[in-house]
User: Fold this.
Amino acid sequence: MENITIMIVEDEEDILDLMEYTLSKEGYDVITCVDTSNIKDILDEEDISLILMDRNLPNVEGSKFIASIREDGYNQPVIYVSAKDSSEDILEGFESGGDDYITKPFNINELKARVKAVIKRTKKIKDVIKYRDIVYNKANKIFTINGEDIKLTHLEHNLLLEFMKNQNILLSREVLLENVWADSLNKQVKTVNVAIKRLKENIDPTGEKNYIQAVRGEGYIFC
Assistant:
């Protein structure tokens, strides 16, 4: 099995241990959290394929937390695993950005099947990255805006892809140099500035859409 990392957010230790053991035995890499305090940091640093989210958490309601990070651009699939089992609760879970909903107490085999199904379904979606009206198709490595292909150089392609993978996240020039110009000998800050200027001219010639914004002294943010 390819490396698939699942994050479990659950404050009941017995349930957390059971889920971690079960999914690890299935071959998944598992990261556990008992609250939401460092979830964004983990999502920024790790390639998380799925979040299993309790709703009754310390200091925050799980579905409200997911709704808030959805607004910040985090789009990892979510399965709620919750004792909130009314029709209204389940509907609320889906409306807040959930991809599936499992009620407690749950059957371990059902958990495994639901996890497998959501990962399989969302993996296909990951072959296409979309933000606002820009779409990137991994199969043919083509960007489109409003359905029209964008002609980019190899460097501009890699630069825009880096921004698409890090939507609404501030990227310093140093990070861009390391990730986009990894094998280049021409690693200068002014190189980043020039490349971004050319990229902006290609994807937003009138400047109306303002996809890439400069943050003085810090870097750039794709928003």
Q: What stands out?
A: Residues 5-125 form a domain with the Rossmann fold fold (CATH 3.40.50.2300). The chain has two domains: 5-125, 129-222. The mean pLDDT is 89.
